Amino acid sequence: MIIAENKTNLLAGKQHFEILDGLRGIAAIVVVIYHFMEIAITDYNKNFLSHGFLAVDFFFCLSGFVIAYAYDSRAPHLGWLQFVKVRLIRLHPLVVIGSVLGLLTFLFDPFSDFYPVYGFGKTLFLFLASVFLIPYPLMPERYTNLFCLNAPAWSLFWEYIANIFYILILYKLNKKVLIVLALAGAACLVYIGVKVPNGNLGGGWGGQNFWDGGARVLYSFTAGMLVYRFNWIIKNKLGFPGMIVLLLAAFLFPYADAYNWITEPIIVVLYFPLLVALGAGTAVNPASKNICKLSGEISYPLYMTHYPFVWVFLTYVAVVKPGVDTLWSVIPVSVIFLIVLAYLVMKFIDIPLRKYLKAKFLT
């Protein structure tokens, strides 16, 4: 009870960055569209949203900023165990929900029949690995994703790693050491850009590019922390519409094999921290406030529930081979359906479950 009361007191008077919440939701929608588009148009040079996967790096940078802002002053009083419980209650219900949806689509996908191939034992291991965020790149049919039932869970795996390092080490480090860590992460990203064909920084999701995820979170999470620690909050009047334009510019930037190895590191290393600094420094007007709030609330449920249905879309495209006109109808309808589903999951499952867990374990 004392811990809970101290936590409340420490939060009192904290500013809430509504614009950053809104941008998180926009980035989540971009990820969903990108995951459909990369199946519909496999040539990145012809895909208008080829950089959509960089939304994950934006999420990591936002996370570093928000975690440092919320916990730098609280961590010594909160303790590592309480911090872990708070983060698990915030994040893990949707990990489980996404795993359940992934299992259901694995079993009942009308365009594939994987269960006879993998059987009860391997299917059970796939599900448990997804629930407990244990990388298990078993399925070549799904490109040896670390989490074959719900692919985006790979970034939650690295988010958990970053959170653990934060409460054990990072919050204690001074700014100079954080700068060194961020520079090391940036160097890793540049190396990946040079090493990977066409300079694509979209690794971390599969057994073949596992450590790329570590590099991505190392840089972006520490960069977000540094934006907070140095108070790089740039006052401006862009508002939510202006920030949306700037964020979408990163994802819509033309993809070109010749120079992609340098453009993506620039976007991640320089542009995303700038966007966080700008987003934290602009005020939300009354007309946008509710939109930003809903956008932020729905972002994580959307991110963690959409991909099981993308797997179904993948097998649908492989088996049915629909025409372009059909895909341009199916994709928008699917995106709208998934946004509505995410809202329903948030309202009727995630929020009530988190309220129950908070009452049981944080009071």
How would you sum up this structure, described in words?
It is a single chain. 73% of the residues lie in helices and 0% in strands. It is mainly α and 363 residues long. The longest helix is centred in the last third of the chain and has 38 residues. The protein is globular, with a radius of gyration of 20 Å. The chain starts with a helix and ends with a helix.
Annotate the secondary structure layout.
Layout: H1 2-11, H2 18-40, H3 55-71, H4 75-78, H5 80-108, H6 115-131, H7 153-168, H8 175-195, H9 210-229, H10 239-252, H11 260-281, H12 286-305, H13 307-320, H14 324-361
Helix pairs in contact: 2-3, 2-10, 2-12, 2-13, 2-14, 3-9, 3-11, 5-6, 5-7, 5-12, 5-13, 5-14, 7-9, 8-9, 8-11, 9-11, 10-11, 12-14
Keywords for this structure?
363 residues, mainly alpha, globular
Summed over residues and divided by their number, the pLDDT gives a mean of: 94
Strand content: under 5%
Described by strand count, sense and barrel closure, the largest sheet is: none
Low-confidence stretches: 1-13
Order of helices and strands: HHHHHHHHHHHHHH
Instruction: Specify the helix fraction band.
Output: over 70%
Distance between the termini: 5 Å
Structural class: mainly alpha
Rg, Å, rounded? 20 Å
Number of helices: 14
- The total strand number stands at 0
Short précis:
The chain has helices at residues 2-11, 18-40, 55-71, 75-78, 80-108, 115-131, 153-168, 175-195, 210-229, 239-252, 260-281, 286-305, 307-320, 324-361. With 363 residues, it is an all-alpha fold.
